[in-house]
Amino acid sequence: MQKNKHLIILHMEHIQCLILGSGPAGYTTAIYTGRADIKTVIYEGPLTGGQLTQTTEIENFPGYPEGIQGNQMMDDLRRQAERFGTEFRMGSIVEVDATKRPFLCKSDFGDELLADVIVVATGASARYLGLETEEQFKGGGVSACATCDGYFYRGKDVAVVGGGDTACEDATYLAHLCNKVYMIVRRDVLRASKAMQHRVMNTPNIEVLWNTNTKELFGEVNGFMSTLQGAVVVNNKTGEERTLKVDGFFEAIGHVPNTDVFKGILEMDETGYIITKPKSTATSVEGIFAAGDCQDKTYRQAIVAAGTGAMAGIEVERFLMENK
User: Fold this and answer.
1) Which CATH architecture has domain 128-251?
2) What is the pTM of this model?
């Protein structure tokens, strides 16, 4: 029995570079490894193209002076990676044996393979409130990225949900673009740093709604198009309801890195972001690299993810050359 098991492993598919995730980080890594003539396979995960496929127009990615739709940009990156020989597969990797190289990996479809190196580019998922109407207005007024989408709401009224540093940063950023910014805070205090609290309180077009939760969102839904028109909020102490006429609803209640499969394997911070070595995408396990939002909780921008993808691609090539 032991001999047969050994034979099975010997004949298992063996690839050089396995990339987990199909956003800007994963696709860019594949462009670099493909051009280096490294056999590269991408498992695209639950959402082909990543978070950007759920947004509309992208105006802050270099090279697109007129802007571009998120789906189109991800398709462009995918086709570029494909041009250099990348193989794309549906599904996710759900098990990794990182005790020795090559790494034994298993997908949710039951595929098993051996990989000389792994690049984790699984991204992070924005936390949402869980309202039924949220799904209707994603991309049509509801956003989890003020830096990405704030420009579309210049001169309009918007709302930001959250009470931490990110929410305060988003609110002050939007205040420079928008007519009015409501901050919806469920407690009677902000969790943000004193400096950020001071900035919010001294920005005249920000109104903080304390002890307040969002009850529902409303607007027009016409086929595949949706347009947010406002939000109904409720004071959780008095029960008083209020209708906010807003065109944009920004949620800043955190992100969850998609790194569960590597818990107990790779070094992570307390919230699950993979820790990489300074000025590198190398993780705590030799031969495993991490790029994009799964290791970046500071910037969370497509161009930054693509940049770390390029870093990972270069580091993979060097690693494989040094470990032949």
Assistant:
1) 3-Layer(bba) Sandwich (3.50)
2) 0.79
Which residue, chain included where needed, has tokens 């549906």? 90
Distance separating alpha carbons of residues 272 and 240, to the nearest angstrom: 38
Q: At what angle do helices 24-35 and 70-83 cross, to 10 degrees?
A: 20
Distance CA 33, CA 47 (A): 22
Instruction: Supply the residues annotated as catalytic.
Output: 145, 148-149
Place of tokens 């009470």: 163
Over residues 145-190, the pLDDT tens digits come to: 898 899 999 999 999 999 998 899 899 999 999 999 999 999 999 9
Q: Which CATH architecture has domain 2-125+255-322?
A: 3-Layer(bba) Sandwich (3.50)
156 Cβ contact partners less than 8 Å away, ≥ 6 residues apart? 178, 179, 246, 247, 248
pLDDT digits (tens, 9 = 90+) for 179-229: 999 999 999 999 988 989 999 999 999 999 999 999 999 999 887 788 999
**Burial class of 52 by CB neighbour count within 10 A (0 to 12, 13 to 18, 19+):** buried
Q: Report strand pairing: 142-143 vs 248-251.
A: parallel
Q: Rounded to whole angstroms, what are the CA distances from 75 to 8, 18, 56, 66?
A: 36, 20, 14, 17
Cα dihedral 96, 106, 115, 124 sign: negative
